[in-house]
Design a protein that fits this description.
The chain has 168 residues and is mostly helical. The chain has eight helices and no strands. The chain is flat.
Length: 168
């Protein structure tokens, strides 16, 4: 369920969930769970983005970006999705949101996204499994905590700066 939500949101790094799945369920089952979550999460995200974009003010739909994306033929979009999905560290949400702006249908998005995610998730699983097996757990936890604290610091700093900007 967590994989599905992460896939739909598109901004949670999938390698974190792949690592959790592999640690919890083993390499084979964890990889299959990660793949299923990413694929079905992308489909859910595609329809959520498409719904959200349908509610956008009509003036935005007149922009050059919108017109460019919306005029792309389905075949071009299909191959673009497939190629971007093959790269395991391209933000999934960006690819999904971009595809939702185009006229591609859900089935073609599902096929392109799935075909692209299969090798990407296997590569990601291999890398994550290698890290899990070779890096001591204490180092993994220390890095995880450090990344979390750094992200928390950046977030709090941005809130403080934004708050100061409102008071002036």
């Amino acid at each position: 369920m967590l994989n599905l939500a992460a896939g739909a949101l598109g901004f949670i790094p999938s390698f974190l969930l792949t690592g959790l799945n592999i640690s919890s369920f083993g390499v084979a089952t964890g990889t299959v769970l990660s793949l299923a979550g990413e694929i079905f999460g992308a489909i859910l995200g595609f329809y959520l983005y498409r719904f959200g974009f349908s509610k956008v003010q009509p003036s935005w739909k007149q922009s050059r970006f919108w017109n460019y994306m919306h005029k792309q033929p389905a075949a071009t979009v299909f191959w673009g999705i497939l190629l971007f999905r093959l790269l395991p560290f391209v933000p999934s949400g960006l690819v999904t949101a971009g595809a939702a702006l185009t006229p591609i249908n859900g089935l073609l998005f599902f096929i392109a996204s799935s075909l692209g995610k299969i090798p990407a998730v296997f590569l990601e699983a291999a890398i994550v499994y290698g890290i899990i097996e070779t890096v001591p757990a204490v180092v993994q936890y220390a890095v995880g905590i450090a990344v979390f604290l750094a992200a928390l610091f950046v977030w709090l700093h941005k809130r403080k700066v934004a708050g100061n900007g409102l008071r002036q």
